Amino acid sequence: MNSEELFGRAVELMPGGVNSPVRAFRAVGGTPRFIRSASGATITDVDGRTYIDYVGSWGPMILGHADAEVVTALAQAATRGTSFGAPNELEVEIAEEIIDAVPSVEMVRMVNSGTEATMSAIRLARGVTGRTKLVKFEGCYHGHGDSLLVKAGSGVATLGLPDSPGVPASLAANTLTARFNDQDSLEQVFQQHADIAAVIIEPVVGNMGCVPPEEGYLKAVRELTSRNGALLILDEVMTGFRVARGGAQELYGVMPDITTLGKIIGGGLPVGAYGGSQDLMGYIAPAGPIYQAGTLSGNPLSMIAGLITLRRLRDQSIYERLERATARLCDGLSAAAEDAGIETVMNRVGSMWTGFFNREPVTDWTTANKSDRKLFGRFFHAMLDQGVYLAPSQFEAGFVSLAHDDEIIDRTVSAARKAFQKTGENG
Predict the structure, then answer these.
(1) Which of 234, 289, 319, 407 yields a CA-CA distance of 20 to 30 A from 416?
(2) What are the φ/ψ torsions at residue 301 (nearest 5 degrees)?
(3) What pLDDT is attached to residue 163?
């Protein structure tokens, strides 16, 4: 069956035909591609078309798809059992790897997703501080936990409103919002509320597109939380082991109280983790009173895939290669857009990137939201026609892997020149 036929079946069986909303192509229109296989920097759909892939399963595939070492290790591990519901050696080894790499983490708890990690981190912060309120930032996504599905209000420090039916207003009211890259906005939140347990932040935002912090901003957030007795949760589900081996906290020199991780640490399998100091993590059951558990947490398949990946990422030259490849890509895309007379803003941190169809620098949700969604949608489909698979939303980060060599980058830029030209002609 082809993608269109499969999607027709899928919509009768799954909400919207997908198991995660962005995959449905609602933001760009058309029929989502159903993928049959992936290798290196490419994915192949059920129609037999192969695409250069810049989604990378939304970030985990930093080594590239179906990395031979990871696949071999997974196959061997599966013969020994896929899940035990008991401790295993791989959990210990990956914990050692994470603690060695991430500056703020002295002890870590494995979970099954980034959402579980952020939910657990918030429970820990509330339990330790005895406070209730949480601060998040407009346009930042931290998973689909009820406390985090909150719209940003129009005011600087407005009470949260539910962003999804099913989230009680009374619960959402405990989530406050501030503007990313705006220190004054966060200061006003603290001035108006004394019972803040934690501030949670994506150090490099990935879910309004790639938006980096301005110079000194993360350190200012750290100072504000410390001064007001709130914990700082750095959501490194996307940036962990991506922008540097030690994540954004290494790159920007900021030490959070709690770090959340996911994506790369599972090597492409379901995973999440949260960690911090030994004192703080000592509050987690069974060592302490704050409960959290998971049937498949630390399962040997996710652990071996993650462990192989993290051991490979000890090599600093990998990050240098990713930096060069992503710079080559973004410089090429910028030049192609300019030659076609299309205004774009290219944001990049390490191997995370987004090309915004925008006329001004993108530094927060307000500026990101000015991007031309329709123009992006036309460009997305033009690139798809040229054999390049981008994230099907203007407001998602793209990712470069080790498998994206110069030849693949140059093919992408060549495809983009044609796509920008077609996009401009259809405008």
Answers:
(1) 319
(2) -70, -50
(3) 60
Report DSSP state, residue 19.
Answer: S
Last residue of a domain, one of 293, 312, 331: 312
* Placement of tokens 């200012």 in the chain: 220
Give the total number of structural domains in the chain.
2
State pLDDT tens for residues 312-352.
999 999 999 999 999 999 999 999 999 999 999 999 999 99
pLDDT digits (tens, 9 = 90+) for 22-49: 999 999 999 999 999 999 999 999 999 9
**Residue 276 belongs to a domain with what CATH number?**
3.40.640.10
β-sheet bridge partners, residue 108: 275
Which residues, 6 or more positions from 236, have their beta carbon under 8 angstroms from its beta carbon? Answer: 102, 203, 247, 248, 249, 259, 260, 261
Catalytic residues: 141, 235, 263
What is the domain extent for residue 304?
A: 68-312
pLDDT per position as a tens digit, 392-419: 999 999 999 999 999 999 999 999 999 9
Is the whole model's pTM more than 0.85, yes or no?
yes
Alpha helices in 254-315 (DSSP H): 278-281, 300-312
Same-domain check for residues 287 and 331: no
